[in-house]
Amino acid sequence: MPPRDALLVAHVLAASITIGATVSYAVWIALAERDPQHLAFTIRAVRTSDRIVAIPAFLLTLVTGAMLVTTIGVPWATPWLAWSLALYVAVLAVGIGVFGPVVRRELAALERGGVRDAEYRRLRSRARGLSIGTILALAAILVLMVARPA
Prior knowledge:
mainly alpha, 0% strand, 150 residues
């Protein structure tokens, strides 16, 4: 397999892992909400999986994407690429600066006061919104990468 093709496969695989993991987290937490005795465990498991699977895949997507852009010679200012990078940076910034801290506080509130705790419910609602936003942003990046609109 030519190096460019291997790079493309690595890029698509890393992106697929990122999107798949992110969507599955929302599903696992929604399922655990039906059986709250497992909710704290599920949130902790999702956080661990995020750190060892999704985040490394997300970063590998950036690295392999940058290598592909350089190899293929697509100008960085190409609109679909620029929008994809802007969304990527937004997802990264929100993930580090907002989503991560919200989930940490959500888990602490859950362990302190249970599912009926007002603080937990407020943070769960915020985390759900951030999750939906992240999934939509990742889907938009995927569409831009595949469709490459002018």
